[in-house]
């Protein structure tokens, strides 16, 4: 009985000699086999080209592997002994282009974003110790040292003055249609203490539409001007009174002013 080696075109008289030939021959060191056609190729590229041109193999692939997931099974049928030349990805892309399959994808679910709700203001009055350094600069060079009293309950003041400043308010009630309003009559109470100490309390206003407290944004220039002027006057410094804007404004809404409710606003009836 003869044993034939098709790739080498040689015949052997015994199976032992044939097996030894396949073990030692360079032709058999790197081979790529197609079990469907019982063919052997020296390179993966030749195997892929064979599979694209082989009608029988194409029909088998289409009949038995109708989806993309079966491509791995198609490649597994070919016993690839060496994948150094080409990657599995290149082979899969080549087969997919020759045998297009229907691919169904499901779009990812996108979580609905939560509606952003602004936090409503709860403070009826404010203090701004972070602006003390600017007040200290404004009273120079006449007054070298001043200090800010952050105790809003300290009634041991030596003098007190009520005035107004400017600012704007925003309503953060999500159910209210009124968004913001401006005011030139924001009540401010300035108290004086020993050694040029002072405390300034600014009173909030309420929304006329829903009666909620507003979020206050001050006019910083008017705040610094009012307080520095009053500190100088209490210290005996001769200063010229600022020329405040005397334009006519809308009537002050006493019912919505926290200063008026406490008798701290010059526009109220209790001061």
UniProtKB/TrEMBL annotation:
InterPro entries: ZAR1/RTP1-5-like_Znf-3CxxC (IPR027377), Znf_C2H2_jaz (IPR022755), Znf_C2H2_sf (IPR036236), Znf_C2H2_type (IPR013087). Keywords: Metal-binding, Zinc, Zinc-finger. Residues 3-28 form the C2H2-type domain. It holds the Pfam family Zn_ribbon_3CxxC. GO terms for molecular function: zinc ion binding. It comes from the Eukaryota. SMART domains: zf-3CxxC, ZnF_C2H2. Signal peptide: none annotated. The keyword Zinc-finger applies. Transmembrane segments: none annotated. The keyword Zinc applies. This is C2H2-type domain-containing protein. It comes from Cochliobolus sativus (strain ND90Pr / ATCC 201652). The lineage of its organism: Eukaryota, Fungi, Dikarya, Ascomycota, Pezizomycotina.
